[in-house]
Amino acid sequence: MPRLAIGPEFPRELSALAQPVRRDAVVALRRFLLNVAGAPHPERVRGARDPRVATLRLADGHRGVVVRRRDVYWLRTVLPDAAAWSYARRHRYTVNPALGVVEEWDAEALERVEPALRRSARSSGLFAPVCDGDLLSLGLDVHALPLFRLITTEADVAALEPLLPPTQHLPLAVLARGGSLAEAWRELDSWRAADDPGPIDPDDLYAALRRTPDQAAFAPDKVALDRVLGAPGWCTFLHPAQHRLAKAPRYDHPVLVVGGAGTGKTVVALHRAAYLAAHGSGPVLLVTFSQGLAEELSARLDTLVEDELVRKRIEVDNPERLALRIVADAEGRRPALVGPGARTLAQLTDEALRLMSLSTGDLLDDVEPGRKPYRHVVVDEAQDVSPAQWRLLRAVAPHAPDDLFVVGDPHQRVTDTRVALGAVGIPAEQHTLRTSYRLPQELLSFVVRLRGGGLATGLARGATDMYGYRATHNGERPRVRAYESAEAELAGLRATVESWLADGVPPGEIAVGARTTRLVGQARKALEGLDVRAATFRNLKGLEFERVALVGVAEGVVPEPPPEDPGARARILQRERSILFVACTRARAMLYISHYGRGSPFLPL
């Protein structure tokens, strides 16, 4: 029986096909898995640059391109016949000798580039100071080494990026900008999906695909196949660093994952919660910033976790509701939040912590872990958790391996909370995600300049910077529009959203944001009849959309006039800048910002 792995592009391309073609392709793949009569068979590709590449006829006029080795088939794409044959002839595939991951090369384009590099080559190439052995130690392909030796400028390296596997381009880019071999290795290490890849056999395609979770998902049967083809990509294809963090067999100490916008922190938190529910030793609590976000994460877990028993082991909540529930359980009724005898959320958090201390003993007394209500706690949007809430979260799980797993970004803080985990009794080992998979480079550069690129305190020891964040793809630059009146700005908003809908963007993939509820109300009125979400900047936190429009980003609104006191002024301005930063980074593809009068001083020039 064949062992079939699906590449990440295949489900997207399949879903774009006409329904009859899509149906026939799925039926053909099911037959292929079962190896029954009428199943498609691999057809050799004449002129292929890689003899392991073949095609499968999946539907009338459409073929899948596969890389095969013995009984292992890696399904890369589905295209019309002519395009499929062209794709199959164009590419070759390798296993990186240092990391053991699979690599795809645009071999045809590299053949066209080589003469130009040779003509411009000088007597001494850019990598002349580095010996062949050192280059090969970074996993660079021995057959491509002569080509790399022709490179003379950093611009050459940048031009080759679309044609090379990222695990080949990344070490070249580090060395080209003057980095050391050690720096190149550190960058390359971000593509390792497991701490120990095991023995690397360049002919073992199965093992290589297993080490490359962002490029391959195995479908051993019809159920698994339908799951891979139908589930959102974030459920199935984890980038290597995300996979390494989320699927680690065991952490002996609390873990803190810090990452910029779009690096997949929430995805890591969801997958870690699912992993602990399936492989851990007790109930899992997943905590996030607000009740709205908790409902969003709960729905995403319903999609991610198929096994109902495993799903029931994960409880999703926010810190305020957790404290409220602990107090309510102890007192037999819901505490009043308004009126006579009402307690503040801060008071309820303190009371919940006191009750936990009484019911489970000293916070460090974990001889009987079963006395704690949860065995594992996963925290998302951790930058906005208060010190008292951290102490409560520390108290609800025992001090034991895999107790706390925390993700956050101090630059996306929307409150005045600034607390390092070590200061509240949580000495965490820190990991950093620096690759943004959601934001295009143009948008990432814009928001880094908007945020100021400076340091942010909280969560980690010292301060967290934004140095080294990068995107994996390019896109459109954010659009900033100035209008002469509020009426003109709202008319421009409606015209923009209407054009996005006309482009075929689903209404659920469009969000409109404003700083105040008054402005949100005006935007909703202007968008009457258009079924798109409108919310305050703060209420967009943790969500993502294909396109985002932000209105009223004007001086005096973003930010409102700050107080005169220097300390309070600095805190409020930083918080307001962070809130705008969070709203801007909700967009995956396009960001539109508008104002009338003078624009916000936060907007980059």
UniProtKB/TrEMBL annotation:
Asked if Repressor is a keyword of the record, the answer is no
**Any one of the GO BP annotations:** recombinational repair
Molecular function per GO: 3'-5' DNA helicase activity; ATP binding; DNA binding; hydrolase activity
Q: Which UniProt keywords apply?
A: ATP-binding, Helicase, Hydrolase, Nucleotide-binding
Q: Which residue range or ranges hold the UvrD-like helicase C-terminal domain?
A: 538-595
Give the CC-aspect GO terms: cytosol
| Superkingdom of source | Bacteria
Q: InterPro entries from the xrefs?
A: DNA_helicase_UvrD-like_C (IPR014017), DNA_helicase_UvrD/REP (IPR000212), P-loop_NTPase (IPR027417)
Pfam families according to UniProt: AAA_19 (PF13245), UvrD_C (PF13361)
- Report whether Metal-binding shows up as a keyword of the record: no
| Full protein name | UvrD-like helicase C-terminal domain-containing protein
